[in-house]
Design goal:
The complex is a heterodimer of chains A (212) and B (322). Chain A has one domain (3-210): P-loop containing nucleotide triphosphate hydrolases (Rossmann fold), CATH 3.40.50.300. Helices cover 31% and strands 26% of the residues of chain A. Chain A is built from seven helices and nine strands; from the N terminus they run βββαβαβααααβαβββ. In chain A, helix 4 crosses helix 6 and helix 6 (136-150) packs parallel to helix 7. The longest helix of chain A has 15 residues, at 136-150. The radius of gyration of chain A is 17 Å and the shape is globular. The model of chain B has no long low-confidence stretch (mean pLDDT 83). Chain B has helices at 2-11, 15-25, 27-48, 52-101, 105-110, 113-121, 131-152, 154-176, 179-202, 204-209, 213-266, 271-312, 317-321. Chain B is built from 13 helices and no strands. In chain B, helix 2 crosses helix 7 (131-152), helix 8 (154-176) packs parallel to helix 12 and helix 9 crosses helix 12 (271-312). Chain B is mainly α and 322 residues long. The chains are: A alpha/beta (212), B mainly alpha (322). The interface between A and B is medium-sized, with 24 and 22 residues.
Amino acid sequence: MGIIVEDLSFSYEGNHVLDHINLTVQSGETIGIIGVSGGGKSTLLKLISGLYDLQSGKIFVMGAQNFIDRRKNVALVLQNAALFPASIRDNITCGHEMEESLICHACEAAQLTDWINTLPDKLDTFVGERGGKVSGGQAQRIAIARAIAKNAPVVLLDEPTSALDNDTSAAVITALDELTKGKTVLHISHRSETLTGCTRVLRLEGGRLYVP
Amino acid sequence: MFREMSKILKTINSGWRFVFLILLRSPVNIAMTFVNAFFLQQAFNGIMQNNSRQLINTCVIFGIASLCIFLYNGSVWSVYAAPLVTKMEGTLRIKLFRKISSLSYEKIEALPQGEWLTRLNIDVQMPFSESWPHTAVAVVNICVSLYLLWCLDTAVFGWILLFVIPHIAFGQLLIARAMPGLNKKSLAAMAQNTDELTTLVTCADVAALYDGQEYFMKRFEKSSRDLLQANMKMHARNALGTGILPLFGLGGYLTLLIVSSGWIAEGRLTFGDLTAAFSYRGGVLPGALMLINSLISIQAGMAGIRRLNVTLAEETEESIYG
């Protein structure tokens, strides 16, 4: 089983954003969740990925309940990619020893290779303070390459193309297709048109999940 | 040095108030030196001449004068200096913040976050360090003490000068010259360290999900080590000065003691004059030490003051695009 959420509730200082949520995502299935901004979609992803502590309920990711094990099974791509002031290589590997072929494959799949080949320092190019030397689309694709290199069985997508223009998002969507191939995917968005390719689309409203 | 400082003071329209503060502060130490010297000279002369009336009068005058100096100094600091410095620092911080917030995004983006935080938190304190009034106090103390020594006895004056000059020169050569460079490296290391800490916070989700905590921690540890090493170099240089410079002071003291014993025996100098000379020497030598330390501190802080001036002189987006 990919993801199992059982009776999950979560609140910020008494404000209930998730109310007795139950969700099952089969391995290899792609599920979309739509809902208004501030409706708790991102909170749900952060709980599943183990970034937030559970208040009540249970979550299993690839059978793992412990938050450390859940993190190992998850790759998360957020709306605005967080790059740190280091090289493209370090932003992809996060300091881990990785084979060059694996990094190159991740870059190729994330549609980065052509751009990286134009850079004088290639993979060792500094992305700038707060990723300032790369565009939003490039930053997002570096974040996708990072997720591809991790090769986690579950991919969580938090509106990964919403901050990008149409031309840029085309390359990012191609990269996302590579990332999500054969994986269990949970894709959240506030626009249903971005959730094409999902086997099911659910609506998160008032802290509860509905079939629209 | 003075040009950089005057630019800062002009920016916050406080040049005259700062000068006035230094003028108010500058006579305190020399007044104390003079009162001490006068007391020792008169008291010992009174004792040597078995003149109890002179001794009592001297003690009363010394007590009143010391109290007046103490009250004056306390009033200047509490009523004028502390509020003024706080106000000036606050004004500079606001102006700097406004300046930074009106810079183009490209300029802000070009530097690490830590650089900006260091300018706003550390650099703004540099122009108002106590080193500036201390320098003025030390200069006045040295000049007036030397003049009073000259008036007291030219030979004593010469011996004291013989040890004070190399003392100052050595301090300048050994410590002060190296300080701006060392401090610049220290500030750069501090900015880098702050930046790494910020990254550690802003990329906490990446660190958690991609098992990158160790990587981020290593980066932070490396920058912390660099900062430590940069600071250690400054401390080592200061410690070298602290270890060697007192030798000049002690050497001068012992030499004067040996030489003057003959003069007292000859009747050319009284014991009261000698104690007064030691007291004036105390105005010259600690004054010189204070001057060296203040100059070192000012020179060390100049890196920050220069950076402030560079930032304050930057063209804002409004000035570029009209």
